[in-house]
C-alpha cells in the first residue's frame, strides 16, 4: 500500500510538472516571466530585445525574446521542483559562472576601446549553450533544445556581434543601456 501511494505521488508530481511546463511554454509572456525572473534580469531581456529588434525587426525579435523566456522559465520550473540531478546542478553552476564572466567581458569590451574579441565571445557563448543544452536535453523536448540553439545562434553571428561592439554602430545606445543593467545584475548578485 505504501509503495502504491508513493507511486501515485510520483505519478502526480510528474504529471503536475508536465502540465506546468506545457502551460508556461504556451504562455511565455513578460508577465509570466516576472514570476520566475527578477526585475533586473527582465530589463536585461528588454535590452537584448531592443538589440534584436534593431537587427531583425519585430517578428524575429519577438521570437528570440519568447525563446529566452521559455528557456528561463522551464529551467526555473525544473530547479524549483527538484528535478535536476547533481550533474545538472553542477552544469547550471558552471553556466552561472560563465554568464557572470560573460557579463564582465561585455562590460569591459564596451568600456575599453579595441578590446573586443569575437573569438572569445563566440567560445564563451558556445560553452554556455552546450552546458544549458546538456541540462535540458534529459528533461525537455527537442523543440526546447532548438529554442536554446536559436537564441545563441542569433547572438553569435560574427558580423552582427562585430557591429554591436563597434563604438560608432547603430547598436551603441542599446549596448550602453545593456551594460548598465549587466552591471546592476552583477552588483545585486542576481545571476
Automatic annotation (TrEMBL):
Signal peptide: none annotated. It comes from the Eukaryota. GO terms for biological process: regulation of apoptotic process. InterPro entries: TNFAIP8-like (IPR008477), TNFAIP8_sf (IPR038355). One of its GO terms (cellular component) is cytoplasm. This is Uncharacterized protein. It comes from Dimorphilus gyrociliatus.
